[in-house]
């Protein structure tokens, strides 16, 4: 199974750090955020990675190269302008192939064990959900057993980590579009499963949350 790290965001809320550095290369405890994902993915057996990028993306390619230094193989999907999550994934589909693939947002930090996702995908998507953080108290989706729906309570927050089937994007036109409407449509057809991750997870969208990641990393050291 291949994995894709979504790294095309501009990180405007992280300024001034992101004025001259792409958000995935911002360091937490001395290590770029994206490198935490790569180490975890490699440990879980994901050796073929795809990374999309836009804002200052050449810095990402220059730093990671082919991935050999980190024990993986990396292909890149550059975007002139960010294509949103859905459009970015669709653009990268030729690199991802015809089988289900893992995606993870480049701007989250988590202790989730990626090897849990190396299993057959019963539907169109499998989402990892987390308890609602203070900055997103309403959550996104409802989890009943292992089925995810857009209705019902309580609601959990989508972690930015999932396994998707390429067929989820059938009929989509090239360009910028969001992933959430595709997921919601698949939910109406009972084609989205999920799980709750009770461990550590941080959406590194502000300088304060970056400091939180640094604290968590130092606790684990």
UniProtKB/TrEMBL annotation:
This enzyme's EC code(s): 2.7.7.-
Gene Ontology MF annotations: nucleotidyltransferase activity
Claim: ATP-binding is one of the keywords in the record: no
UniProt superkingdom: Bacteria
Organism of origin: Azomonas macrocytogenes
Nucleotidyl transferase domain ranges (all copies): 2-117
Keywords, comma-separated and alphabetical: Nucleotidyltransferase, Transferase
UniProt cross-references to InterPro entries, sorted A to Z: GlmU-like, MurU, NTP_transferase_dom, Nucleotide-diphossugar_trans
CDD domains attached to this UniProt entry: NTP_transferase_like_1
The protein's name in its UniProt record: MurNAc alpha-1-phosphate uridylyltransferase
PANTHER family for the chain: N-ACETYLMURAMATE ALPHA-1-PHOSPHATE URIDYLYLTRANSFERASE, NUCLEOTIDYL TRANSFERASE
């Amino acid at each position: 199974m291949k994995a894709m790290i979504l790294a095309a965001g501009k990180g405007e809320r992280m300024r001034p750090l992101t004025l001259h550095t792409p958000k995935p290369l911002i360091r937490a405890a001395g290590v770029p955020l994206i490198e935490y994902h790569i180490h975890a993915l490699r440990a879980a057996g994901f050796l073929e990675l795809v990374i999309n990028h836009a804002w200052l993306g050449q810095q990402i390619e220059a730093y990671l190269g082919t991935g050999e230094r980190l024990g993986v193989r990396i292909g890149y999907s550059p975007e002139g302008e960010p294509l949103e999550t859905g459009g970015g994934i669709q653009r990268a589909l030729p690199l991802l192939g015809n089988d289900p693939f893992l995606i993870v947002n480049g701007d989250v930090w988590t202790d989730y064990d990626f090897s849990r996702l190396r299993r057959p995908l019963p539907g169109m998507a499998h989402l990892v959900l987390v308890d609602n953080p203070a900055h997103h108290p309403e959550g996104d989706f409802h989890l009943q057993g292992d089925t995810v729906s857009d209705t019902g309570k309580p609601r959990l927050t989508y972690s930015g980590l999932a396994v998707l089937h390429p067929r989820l994007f059938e009929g989509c036109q090239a360009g910028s579009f969001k992933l959430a409407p595709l997921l919601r449509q698949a939910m109406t057809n009972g084609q989205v499963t999920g799980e709750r991750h009770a461990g550590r997870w941080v959406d590194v969208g502000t300088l304060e949350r970056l400091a939180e990641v640094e604290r968590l990393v130092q606790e684990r050291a």
